[in-house]
Amino acid sequence: MDDQPGPLSLPPDARRPRERADRPIVQPPPSGPVAPGTEERGRIDRPTEPPPPRSRLRRALWILLLLLVVAALIVWLAYRTSHQPAPSGRAQSGGPMPVGTAKVDKGDMPVVLNGLGTVTPLAMVTIKTQINGQLVEVAFREGQMVNKGDVLAQIDPRPYQVALAQAEGQLAKDQAVLKNVELDLVRYRTLAAQNSIARQQVDTQAAVVQQDRGVVQSDQALVDAQKLNLTYCRIVSPVTGRVGLRQVDPGNYVQTSDASGIVVITQLQPISVIFTLPEDNLPVVMRRTRGGASLAVTTFDRTGATKLDTGRLDTIDNQIDTSTGTVKLRAIFDNPDQSLFPNQFVNVQLLVDTVHDATVIPNAAIQRGAPGTFVYLVKADETRRRRSAEGRRQGAAGGESAGRRRAAGSR
User: Fold this and answer.
1) CATH number of the domain encompassing residue 344
2) Which residue, of 264, 290, 305, is where some domain finishes?
3) Does residue 346 share a domain with residue 331?
4) Which of 36, 165, 285, 311 might form a disulfide with 333, Cβ 3.0–4.6 angstroms?
5) For the chain, how many structural domains are there in total?
6) What is the pTM assigned to this prediction?
7) What is the pLDDT of residue 49?
8) Alpha-carbon distance 44 to 20, whole Å?
């Protein structure tokens, strides 16, 4: 009975857990040789597992970023193409270049030399006191135009008035002594004529008279010095010009040793401009000045666009600066509207000569190239030919007659 299985017992194969229906069954490979084609049938392919969700999201982000970069590049190229200026003028390629023409005229051609200069006043005076004392009054306003002789300041005169009175008193005393010794000399001479006194006594008295006369002269000089000090108490302008900023205020004690002084006065009318020219231009200027010609000088501002004033050449320096190869010249200007200011930088044009009744063309018509300066002459058949040009606002080269047309360059 023990050999018979019980009603609840299961065969050994039935006790194993049943394999899941969806799990593939792997057969062991046969131990012997396999016929061709049977190896593939023996393999069982596993189903491909889907990629995880995170890798899909990363791939989508990279694709989106690439699309954005491409779109931005396309927009930038389109914007640059639409806002790029169209080529114009000489840079424009393709098609004929438009040009303008001008007629050759007859007129005066000025010969001008250009230079750089600095406005320099003819007089710039630092007003200083000539005596020591308290400054009690300032009689000018800063920036005021003053004339020669106008009162500028007043120093306390009382100490010098007292000194003058003392000197005058000493002079009166010595004058009285001198008068007495002169009377004694007259008496001694009368007695000497009568042989009443010795001649030596007369000579001694004459020497005393001369000594007292010297004392009186010294006293008179002292009186004059005190009067001069009183004059110095009243400070006046030595030149006509513009007053600068005040250097000292009223109430201060001023001395002759003060370096800054009280104020500086600069002469503005007339005023000069010192400018330089290359030494190569000196012969033509000297030739004109030796002939007695008065050369006109015109000044312009720093940009060269605004005319400031017109004057005349006054003098030429006596030597050439070897470091720069230039020579200094001074021009004088009336400066009626005070457009020229001291130490101002200006552009200078010196009119050396004027060629009258010359054939002239505009500067715009002059072209520059390898042959030098030249112009294009427009002929009657609307064709052009090149001709050389010379000078500034040059006369037409080759003796061209007035009325002929020349190309003035591209528009």
Assistant:
1) 2.40.30.170
2) 264
3) yes
4) 311
5) 3
6) 0.61
7) 56
8) 16
